[in-house]
Structures
1.
Amino acid sequence: MTDCIPVITLDGPAASGKGTIASRVADALGFHYLDSGALYRIATLDALSKGIDLDDAQALSPVFEGGRILLDGRDVTTAIRAEEVSSATSRVAVVPGVRAALFALQKNAARLPGLVADGRDMGTVVFPEAPLKVFMTATARVRAERRYCQLLERGETADLEALTADLEERDRRDSQRATAPLKPAEDARLLDTSCMGIEEVVKKVLEWWDETKKLS
Ligand code: CDP
C-alpha cells in the first residue's frame, strides 16, 4: 500500500550531502525521513562488536533477523558515524542477506503524509515507484572536504588524503557490488552539487517536487 504515499528518493555516493538535503526537504514538506545508511551502519556495528568476520556472508546475514534497529538499547548515534564503521559498512552492505533483512524495514518507513528516503538504492530497488528520484553527485575531492569539515566540527582529527582515498574505495565497492549497486535509476534527475550550497540544493529539490506534483 505504499503506492499512494508520496516518496522522494535521494541517492548518491558517500558524503554527497544526501543526509543533510533529505532531512531539510523532509522538514520543509512535513514528511518523514529515512536514513537508510544508518540501518547498514547499525548492522555493521553489531557485527563488529560480535567479532563477526566481515567477509563471512553466511555469518553476517542473520545480524538483522527480526528487524532489530536498536543495539541492545544502547545509544549508537555517534558510534555508527566513526570512520572505521563507514568503511566496514560498505563491506557488510554487499551481502544480499543483510540487504534482504533491511528491505522490509525501509519499505515500512513509507507513511503519510510522505517520505524522503536517502541512500544508494532507494530509487532503484526499495522505492522504484517513487514519483521523484534524485541522484546527487559531487567530485571525490569536494566530498572529502565536506566530510573533513564535519569531522573537525565534531572535534575529531582527520586526514584529507586518507579521507579521499577511503571515499573512492567505498564508491568503488558500492558501485561494483552485484546486489543493488550504487547507480541512478533510469528516471532519476541528476544533480551535481560540487559548486552548490545547501540552501540552493534544497530549493532545487523542492522545485522538482512542485513540478512532479503538477504532472501527477
Ligand atoms: O553518509 P555516507 O554517504 O558516508 O554514508 P551512508 O549513507 O550512511 O552509507 C554508509 C554505507 O552504507 C555506504 O557506503 C553503503 O555501502 C551502505 N548503504 C547501502 O549499501 N545502501 C543504502 N541504501 C544506504 C547505505
Note: The beta strands are 7-11, 32-35, 115-119, 132-137, 189-192.
2.
Amino acid sequence: MSEQIENVVIIGTGCAGLTAAIYTARANLNPLVIEGALPGGQLTTTSEVENYPGFETGIDGFTLMDTMRKQAARFGTRFQHGTIESVDFTSNPRRLILADGEIQTRAVIIATGASPRLLGLPAEKALYGGGGVTTCATCDGAFYRNMDVVVVGGGDSAAEEALFLTRFCSKVTLIHRRDELRASKIMRDRVLAHEKIVTEWNQVVTDILGVEEKEVSGVRLRHVETGEEKTITCKGVFIAIGHVPNTKPFAGQLELDESGYLLPAPGSMIRTKVPGVYAAGDCADHVYRQAITAAGMGCQAAIEAERWLAEQDF
Ligand code: NAP
C-alpha cells in the first residue's frame, strides 16, 4: 500500500471527471484520475456531438474527449489505469481499493458514469460488438446499410436510434414491451409517421438468433399477453432500454436511489453525505444526462472539493 495521501482522486474520465480534473489541476491540487474500462466515457462511442457549446459545426466524440484529457494533463493531472473495486469512506483519509492496490485520499470526486442496460440474454452477450448486437446506432448504424435491423426499447433513446437508423437501413423494426412509447411526443410522432419504421407492440425479445454463425440473423419474440411466439429476420439488434449507473463499489458506503444512482446530501446537487466525497455526471443524474451537464457537475464538484480541502487546512 502506498503511503502517499492524495489531495483529490477523481474516478472516471468522461465529461464530468475530466472537467473536475481541469479545475482541480488548475487549483494546484495535483489531482489523480482513475481511468476505467472505457477511457473518455460514453461520448467516445458517439460519432458526432452537435450540441456541445463552442463547436459551430460539431465535433466527434472521441476528439472532444481526447482534447479534454490533454487539457487536463496540461495542468498536471496524473492518470492511472484501474478499476475501483470497493471503497472505505468511514476511514480518514478515504480508502479506494483497486485490484492491485489501494489509494488513500482526502477528497474523492465520483464520475463513473452509466453503462447501457442489456436484456440479459446469453445470445446477446455472445453477439455483442462485431456479431451484430450493439447499443450505439451512431457508432454502428452505417455498417447496416440496406439491411433490416431491430431496435429494442420504447424511450427517447430507442426512438432516436430508430430514426437515425432509417438513414442507412431498409427497414427498422421497433420492438417494445408495452403498447405505447415512453418517448416524448415529438419523438413518438416522428417514429410512428416514418415509412421505414414498423412497430412490434407488447413484445419481448426471448432470443437472438445467429450465435453459431457469429452473426445476427433474427430475433425471437413473445407477445406479453397472448404468449404467441414469432421470429423476425434482421442483421442488427440495437438495444436501447436505458442505462445503469456505475455505482456498485459505493453501495453500502453512500446513499443510492432504487435504480442505483448516487444521491446527493439534502440541499446539494454534488455533495454526498460523506464529507469530501462528491458525485458528478451520469452516475448521479438520470434526468439530464448530457455532456454539458456532466461537465457542469464536474466543475461544481471540483470547486466544492477545493473549498472543503481549504477548510480542512490541506
Ligand atoms: P428510458 O426513458 O428509461 O426508456 C427505457 C425504455 O426501455 C422504456 O421504454 C422501457 O420500457 C424499456 N425497457 C427497460 N428495460 C427493459 C427490458 N429489460 N426489456 C425491454 N424493454 C425495457 O431510457 P432512455 O430512452 O435511454 O432515456 C433516458 C433519459 O434520457 C430520458 O429522460 C430521456 O428523455 C432522455 N433522452 C432524451 C433524448 C432526446 O431528447 N433526444 C434522447 C435520448 C434520451 P417501459 O416503457 O415499459 O418502461
Note: The helical segments are 15-26, 61-74, 122-127, 137-140, 156-165, 185-193, 291-311.
